[in-house]
Each structure stands twice: as C-alpha cells, then as structure tokens.
UniProtKB/TrEMBL annotation:
Cofactor: FAD
Top-level class of the enzyme under EC nomenclature: oxidoreductase
Molecular-function GO terms, alphabetical: acyl-CoA dehydrogenase activity; flavin adenine dinucleotide binding
Protein name as it appears in the record: Putative acyl-CoA dehydrogenase
Length: 382
C-alpha cells in the first residue's frame, strides 16, 4: 500500500512523538541493565508501530516499505534496541508474506499485529553466517510431518519470541535447493534456547542460540514448498536490509542531534564551540552523510514497492552506506562531545556501540559489496 506524502509525514510525527516521549526516557536504563525494552515496545504496540508491514486483513497497518523505513528511523534515533526488537517482527512476517498460505498468514500474523505475540527469524548457524547455504540444521520428513534438529545462532528475540520462521535442510543432496522454511512456536517440544549473548550494543535486544532437539512439526508448518527456503530467506533479506539501513540512519541522526545541541551550548576559549569553523566542517560532513544515507534508503524502499529487479542491490547499497555512515557519525559525535562523549551520562557512546552491528548483521558490508557487484556485472553481461 502506497502512502501519500502528507500521510507519511503524519506517521513520521507520530513515530517521533512516541519515540521521544515514551521510548527515549528508558533507553539508557535498558542499555545499562541489558533488559528487554518493555516500556518502549509496549508504546509501539499501543501506537500500532511495532509491525507496520502486517496487512490490514490481519489487523495490521499494511504499510509500504517507505513507511516502514521512516518508522524504523524515528525509533532508532532514540533507542536502537527497541527498534531492533520490533524490527524482528518484520523479519518474521516477510517469509510468510512471500510464501505462506492465507491460513498460515492469518494464524501467525494476526497475533503479531495485535501485539499478542513477538516474532523471530532463525537463519544463521554457528558455522553458517554469511554462507547460509552451508547450514547443517536438518528437517526430516515423517509420517506426521517433519522432525527438526540443529542449532541456530544470533537469533534476535530468541527465547522471548512466541513464533519463529526457521530454515533447515530437507534435501542434503540438493545443495542450496534443498533448504526449506518452517514456522515454529515457542511451546514446540524439543525447542530450547541458550543464554542471552553479552553484546557490545543493542544490549536490551535478546540474542540467543536456538536448539532444536528432534522437534516434531506437523505438515502445515512448512512455508511454501520444499526446497524454496533459500529463495524465501534471500527475498526477505532483500526487503529487510532497507530496514537495517533505516535503523542506521536513525542512529546517525540521533547522534548528530546530540552533537549539534552540545556544541551549541558548550563554551571553550571564551566562545561557544559551534563558532569554531573546524567543528562546523565536522557537523556539515556528518549532516551530508546522514542526508545521503536517508535518500539511498528511501530510494531502496521505493524499489521494493515497485518490485524492481535491482531492489536487492539497492537495499544492499543503502545498508552498506547507511551503516558506514552511522559508525562514522557516531564516532565523530563522541569526538565532538569530548570527555562527555566517552561516558554514559550522554547517549552518543551508546549510539556508537549500537551502530557497529549495522555493519555486520543481515549480511556484513563485505557481503553487501558482493551483492552489489554481482548485480552490476549480471546486468552488464545480460
């Protein structure tokens, strides 16, 4: 569903109001205690901003990719942890939107839209991160359906989420064409979780291993057809990488806002820091990079809506540039705040720690360059 410009701005203002008024006050405490962002996530649920891509037919907002990006940016501007928790709902939703039956979509997306369930996406493994096709988790066919065994790693919302889209090998002889997608529920027998990872950033977003000890699944848990799993996973990432780009833009914008406010008030050598031309140049460079990252992200979102064949490369480009921008801008923000930037009394050190993961997850920036180069060369040779 395409959103008119006026409506998009209204949604941005709503997201900004919720983020500033109901999420930001808890961001530091969530980070310090490494606890689930209960207050912030509840605020998103009450505002229907926690899973905006879920269609209206299932009780969701049915927002387009640009609206989703705008919401992600505004939340991440004050608390990337809260945005990450809600963003996992969209990672869960997209495989269902791409390949599940209407009955499956209603079964698992309606509770997400209602705020009654939390979703997760289980693709990575201890020895299959960037190289997802080398996964070893197995799903064997049984008379009743499937039996799944293996381990998944780095799963956002692991142990907290109520439902999971999980990828497993169903035909070991078929290589990448032998991977299938399944829906799991937290109460499934044989499903358990590791201890939350102790992370540099996004500390309140639970990240765990997921253990599958001969988990029995009925036949209706298969999403799409056997062997379509990698296509579903990559199709999902082609769309959600734009969300990571938006998250990175939000983190960078938040850090820039803090830096501008600080140099506008802090005095040294008899004048406000903002009067020093060298610092003005730093701020200008930061602002240009954030603006460019935002435009790349919005362009990628528009390609998703258009179903453009280049949307995967566009999302990769946006994620690559925006995440590098977030790392650079947050580091510069710490520098501009000086000693104040290095302590937890100010949020830029948290933003710098949070920014780093955007260069790593949903495909490292090295992988994004491969995606971009392959698209470029394929179109040139085609």
């Amino acid at each position: 569903m395409s959103i008119a410009a006026d409506d998009l701005e209204e949604i941005r203002q709503l997201a900004r109001s919720v983020a500033t008024g109901r999420i930001a006050p808890f961001a530091s405490a969530v980070d310090e205690a490494a606890r689930f962002p209960t207050e912030g996530y509840q605020a998103l649920v009450e505002s229907q901003l926690h899973a905006v891509v879920v269609p209206e037919a299932y009780g969701g907002v049915g927002a387009d990719a640009l609206t989703s990006a705008v919401v992600a940016e505004e939340i991440a501007r004050v608390c990337a942890t809260t945005q990450q928790v809600s963003g996992a709902n969209e990672l869960f939703a997209w495989p269902l939107l791409l390949a599940a039956s209407e009955e499956q979509q209603r079964r698992w997306l309606a509770p997400i839209a209602a705020g009654e369930a939390l979703g997760a996406f289980a693709l990575s493994e201890p020895d299959a991160g960037s190289d997802v096709a080398s996964m070893t988790t197995r799903a064997e066919a049984t008379d009743e359906g499937w039996r799944v065994r293996g381990t998944k790693r780095w799963i956002t919302n692991g142990g907290v989420a109520d439902c999971y889209v999980l990828f497993a090998v169903t035909d070991p002889e078929a290589g990448s064409r032998g991977i299938s997608a399944f829906a799991l529920e937290r109460t499934d027998a044989g499903l358990s979780f590791g201890a939350p990872e102790k992370k540099m950033g996004l500390k309140g977003s639970p990240t765990t291993e997921v253990y599958l000890d001969d988990v029995p699944l009925p036949a209706d848990r298969l999403i799409g057809r056997p062997g379509e799993g990698l296509r579903i996973a990559l199709g999902t990432l082609d769309r959600t990488r734009t969300g990571v780009a938006a998250q990175a833009v939000g983190i960078a914008q938040g850090a820039l806002d803090v830096a501008v406010d600080h140099v506008s008030q802090r005095r040294q050598f008899g004048k406000v820091l903002a009067e020093f031309q060298g610092l003005q140049f730093m701020l200008a460079d930061m602002a240009v990079a954030v603006r460019a990252a935002r435009l790349l992200t919005h362009a990628a979102a528009e390609e998703i809506e258009a179903g453009a064949p280049t949307m995967g490369a566009s999302g990769a480009a946006a994620k690559l540039f925006a995440s590098d921008t977030a790392m650079k801008v947050t580091t510069d923000a710490v520098q501009l705040l000086g000693g104040s930037g290095y302590v937890t009394d100010f949020p830029v050190e948290r933003m710098m720690r949070d920014a780093k993961i955007t260069q790593i997850y949903e495909g490292t920036n090295q992988i994004q360059r491969i995606v971009i180069a392959r698209d470029l060369l394929n179109r040139t040779q085609g």
